[in-house]
Amino acid sequence: MRAAEELRRILRRIDGRGYKTYKDIEGVYNCGEYVLFVDHVQGDPFASPSRVRVQVPQKVAGFPEDAYHNKSREIALRDFLTRRFFDASTNFCKGRRGTGKSGIISIDRPGQEILERSSAFVTEPYVEVRFVMGLPAFGRTVAGRHAEAMFFEELPQIVRASLFFKHLDESTLYEHIEVAEDADFLRKQLVHLGLVAFVADEAILPRASGVDSRPLTGGRVVPFESPESLRVKVILPNRGAISGMGIPKGVTLVVGGGYHGKSTLVRALELGVYDHIPGDGREFVVTNPYAVKIRAEDGRRIEKVDISPFINNLPFGQNTGAFSTEDASGSTSQATNIIEALEVGVQLLLIDEDTSATNFMIRDHRMQELVSKDKEPITPFIDKVRQLYRDIRVSTILVIGGSGDYFDVADRVLCMVEYKPYDRTKEARAIAKKHTAERKSEGGKHFGGISERIPLAHSFDPSKGRREVKISSKGLQSIAFGTHKIDLGAIGQLVDKSQTRAIGDAIYYATRYMDGRRTLKKIVDAVLRDMEEGLDVLNPRPVGDYAMFRGLELAAAANRLRTLSVRQKRIKEMTNDE
Question: Could you tell me which residue ranges the ATPase of the ABC class N-terminal domain spans (predicted)?
């Protein structure tokens, strides 16, 4: 470890020289209150900024052990420190100066969700943050004096303001930690309560806009209020007693007129798999962690998926027991998305008819009379949704506004009226009894089997040109994997581009478990087990811009790699554990 003054001397020595001389500063420096790691120096001022870390000993940082003594609190504290470091860098860094990315100090920026990240760590010996610095230059000439100011004036102020407990607002910090801990506790209670989701009374569900996930403010914001018949009370570790709407296992319909809040409710439930920051409005909207939003996805590639529970007897003898296509229709893609989710352990399906294929959701009696079942390959979801719960114990929450025939298969019906939910189950059942459905069920006696698939390692090639591994995220919804693009646009529960970045590297990491015998689920489970040690397992270098994802999203991304090749397990193989 070198003294901090050595860094100062190097910066003064290379001032005015070629940019590549910045490489001389790579190393570890004792800065008194903290240790500075310059892990990687960018090649030029237009390249990705340099990767830097700071470790502050706990005797200096001073964080009480009760702020991170369990996993919920630890993750929330790390998230809080990342936010404070970002705020401090905005306040104390003078910003861009010179060419390209010169002059920036920045860290992974969290949104409304509290996620486990690789940007900050809290341990008994130290606190660590990982961030980037744009080493300043004019043209491609080192601006050493500006770099010196960044390292010796700006960075110390940022560190002291964000990583020293005595300089943080203690009540705000503990509120952040306790909200996350309570939400995690509540989510774990769902199974004991026989619920798949919970929405707290007084929750604020509407968002500012379609591209702004902060809560809607001003105007007519209607706080959530549970119907009395579904109200549940829970005692949380920190907040104490709260009440709200508990949605039991089974089949739940969400109905109501247009613009009355149906999709807003279900969108909140989709994101209830995550904790949210204080003030978000959805702090205590929690959902079964194995919930998946399902939609139609025209044009996606499908590789040997058994969609026979939904689709059979395709023209020209196409095999739906191992269905493959380069350009799926709405119905085949939606069927595939359900089957792929079942393959890796989904427990709750969230479906909105607005993003579904109409012919996949319903076939009314008039169409049944005109087009006989032997000429219609699709078994609509209405005839399978109860079997999903009865045979596989997978629940469904479904937004439906166009077909009352679903009353026949629902356990409960929620009606949204001016953003308030009403339990209309009794009325829906009375209507179903009064107006007997004329359509005939086409679903058979059972849902059908789920054929597991075994990914083949040779189909995961991340190479590009002379580089053996070239993987990068392109925003939230796309991964460049070698020469191929993975489109994640239909995976609606990703909320942070750092999740996407981590998933890209996790797909490559997963290839170590692709031995021609392990199923996709076993491979995903193996990756998740390794990640219990932390996101760092995905990369041999310290990386500060990963965020935790679920195995469901990892599997969904792998399924959308257009080079994916699999083989299905034979029936007799499925009777034996590996």
Answer: 5-165
